[in-house]
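User: Can you recover a sequence for this backbone? Please restate the input before giving your answer.

Assistant: Of course. Working from this structure:
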């Protein structure tokens, strides 16, 4: 039966859509481990602020959201939320909530926020399919879609409950790149306008939009240097830059930074260079070659001079702002540790280790170079873009582990292109038809015969070729089988990493018991619930800034500093309290109207990310503001950090040490050892701790969270 070409194409399209739909379901289900194992809960720290903001948006409306002054954070300063937030994810979840209610699904806003990232993971897979298909073909696109749905580097910020900006931003990043490449391919101003709208959505969602702002002009610059200028490129870039810049200025947190900050100057420079290139070409079209040489030199030198003059005046006058600390850290990985310790103190701002690449990319660590080789052998406008994107992403991911999120899609796309080309080569061998040569084998010369006719020699050659062809086919089958085995290992690794490493909310800890059963530690929520139920609504709670968003979200109490980290001096004040002796800490608490002090202590549970292990970062941040704080005073005589008998003199008197280890010696952690700290694997050096200005108010079941009340003097003062 003959199948028409149209019918075959319909079947291929149906199969393609079916695979994409199943990929969406696969990505969604894989991200449900956190809900199944724990419950429907918001993860980490920043997502708690996003959830709190989204709830206000849904309950109070847009007007109240944009004019919201949060007096429960950064006391006594407060925070103007509308002008200091990327609202994209809040509006996305609010729109999903309204749509679900419209069609009859009465989900709470909390559950919508929890499910936002898994739902958008399907859109990310579809976007990866579109971008890869634009660069290569639909086969590579399908490989990219399935791989993107499972790659751990993206999974870490898209599991259920991970209600952070990246949950939708990675989708928008890939989709914006695809739409821009469509504009380059077609030269359509409509596609350029769509790219601008996608860019606006990206700007409203994540500060990482700067990556797009710089990668697109870098790509255009490479195209110019490679001699691949076209009018399609001009329409695509100029349309995207002009409209996208105007639209991005409508986001209050960005505003005029889109034309004034140094991070945006690269895009402006390429815009000017591209127009200068076109202008010079226009002049060349109607003057002689001799006149053109002199005139073009004059025009180019004048344009460069004006550009340099404008840049100098802009910087000198302050119109063009300096690069941010995070941007400097990307250019110089040692910059933050030398000059901005608050940036260096964040775990996700640390350089990426080699093991992290394998954990987050697995098979695509090896497939990405293969893809680069393939695209370099077939240079097109689209391939140049993925080369630029991939190369930049590799560099930035090495500087900052958080930017593994940006590398993961590039690695998947390049790896999928390389894998698709590799499989095509061997599948072509497998599909080759082998002609049956049995009749030739039957016509062998008699035994002892030394003469062969030309016809028999020809048949023997054909038989030999057939044997080689069969051998090549068997090798090809073996290679393809090995590739599919490695892909199955990639799937297994991705599911395991998602289940064990990326599905645990920071507010609930878990470990494996002696019999393999999972044991949960719910100390954080226990402490936050105690604050909510047992303290006044206007109580002020001081903690290190890591826990500010969770305190405001779950305990609903006023905090002194939180994860927004916009005021370095205020954070240094908190660090000074933690590092100060008790009398100075008390004076700081009175100045800031602090009622309670919260510390996280992992000595009993062997929890390594507690305030004691973090302590040197508050000291470094404080010392950048207060020169009387010297890090060496908190170290041992040999220059190491220890809470044992050789403890540093300033550390022994600090509030972190006293509040963490108060009454700890009463616990029998290990037989025969008094005050044994399992997180630091040592006995504490000074177990006898007394407090004068603070009193223990609450200690969680496993001593993970400890809350102290600031005492008030009685009528006779302090005794």
């Amino acid at each position: 039966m003959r199948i028409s070409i149209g019918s075959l194409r319909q079947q291929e399209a149906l199969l393609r859509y079916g695979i994409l739909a199943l990929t969406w379901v696969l990505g969604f289900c894989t991200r449900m481990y956190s809900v199944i194992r724990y419950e429907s809960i918001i993860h980490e720290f920043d997502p708690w602020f996003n959830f709190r903001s989204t709830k206000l948006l849904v309950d109070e409306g847009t007007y109240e959201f944009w004019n919201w002054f949060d007096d429960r954070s950064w006391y006594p300063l407060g925070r103007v939320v509308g002008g200091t937030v990327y609202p994209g994810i809040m509006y996305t979840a609010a729109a999903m909530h309204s749509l679900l209610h419209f069609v009859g699904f009465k989900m709470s806003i909390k559950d919508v926020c929890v499910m936002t990232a898994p739902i958008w993971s399907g859109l990310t897979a579809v976007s990866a399919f579109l971008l890869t298909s634009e660069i290569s073909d639909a086969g590579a696109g399908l490989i990219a879609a399935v791989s993107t749905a499972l790659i751990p580097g993206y999974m870490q910020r898209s599991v259920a409950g991970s209600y952070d900006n990246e949950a939708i931003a990675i989708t928008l990043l890939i989709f914006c790149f695809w739409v821009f490449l469509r504009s380059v391919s077609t030269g359509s101003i409509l596609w350029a306008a769509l790219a601008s709208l996608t860019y606006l959505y990206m700007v409203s969602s994540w500060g990482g939009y700067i990556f797009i702002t710089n990668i697109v002009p870098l790509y255009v610059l490479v195209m110019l240097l490679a001699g691949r200028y076209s009018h399609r490129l001009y329409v695509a870039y100029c349309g995207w830059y002009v409209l996208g810049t105007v639209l991005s200025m409508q986001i209050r947190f960005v505003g005029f930074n889109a034309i004034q900050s140094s991070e945006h100057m690269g895009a402006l420079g390429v815009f000017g260079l591209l127009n200068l290139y076109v202008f010079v070409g226009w002049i060349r079209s109607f003057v002689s070659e001799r006149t053109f040489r002199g005139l073009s030199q004059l025009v180019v030198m004048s344009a460069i001079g004006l550009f340099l003059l404008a840049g100098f005046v802009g910087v000198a006058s302050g119109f063009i702002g300096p690069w941010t600390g995070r941007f400097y850290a990307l250019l110089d990985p040692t910059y933050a540790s030398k000059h901005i310790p608050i940036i260096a103190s964040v775990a996700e701002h640390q350089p990426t280790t080699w093991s992290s690449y394998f954990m987050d990319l697995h098979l695509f660590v090896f497939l990405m170079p293969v893809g680069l080789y393939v695209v370099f052998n077939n240079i097109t406008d689209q391939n140049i873009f993925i080369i630029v994107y991939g190369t930049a992403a590799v560099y930035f991911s090495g500087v900052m582990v958080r930017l593994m999120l940006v590398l993961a899609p590039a690695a998947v796309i390049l790896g999928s292109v390389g894998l698709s080309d590799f499989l095509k080569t061997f599948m072509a061998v497998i599909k080759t038809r082998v002609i049956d040569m049995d009749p030739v084998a039957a016509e062998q010369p008699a035994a002892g015969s030394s003469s062969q006719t030309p016809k028999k020699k020809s048949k023997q050659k054909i038989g030999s070729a057939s044997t080689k062809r069969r051998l090549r086919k068997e090798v090809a089958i073996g290679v393809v089988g090995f590739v599919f085995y490695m892909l199955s290992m990639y799937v297994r690794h991705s599911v395991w990493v998602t289940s064990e490493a990326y599905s645990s909310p920071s507010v609930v800890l878990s470990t494996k018991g002696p019999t393999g059963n999972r044991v949960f530690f719910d100390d954080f929520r226990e402490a936050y619930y105690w604050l909510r139920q047992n303290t006044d609504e206007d109580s002020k709670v001081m903690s290190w800034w890591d826990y500010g968003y969770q305190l405001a979200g779950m305990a609903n109490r006023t905090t002194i500093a939180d994860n927004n980290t916009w005021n370095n001096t205020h954070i240094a004040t908190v660090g000074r309290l933690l590092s100060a002796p008790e009398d100075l800490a008390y004076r700081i608490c009175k100045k800031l109207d602090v009622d309670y002090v919260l510390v996280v202590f992992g000595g009993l549970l062997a929890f390594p990310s507690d305030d004691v292990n973090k302590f040197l970062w508050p000291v470094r941040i404080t010392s950048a503001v207060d020169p009387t704080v010297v890090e060496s005073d908190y170290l041992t005589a040999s220059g190491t950090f220890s809470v044992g008998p050789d403890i540093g003199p300033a550390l022994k008197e600090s509030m972190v040490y006293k509040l963490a280890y108060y009454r700890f010696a009463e616990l029998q952690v290990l037989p025969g050892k008094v005050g044994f700290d399992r997180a630091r694997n040592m006995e504490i050096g000074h177990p006898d701790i007394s407090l004068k200005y603070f009193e223990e108010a609450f200690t969680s079941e496993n001593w993970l969270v400890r809350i102290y009340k600031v005492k008030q003097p009685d009528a006779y003062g302090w005794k």
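That completes the design. Confidence is low (pLDDT under 50) at residues 435-444, 446-451.
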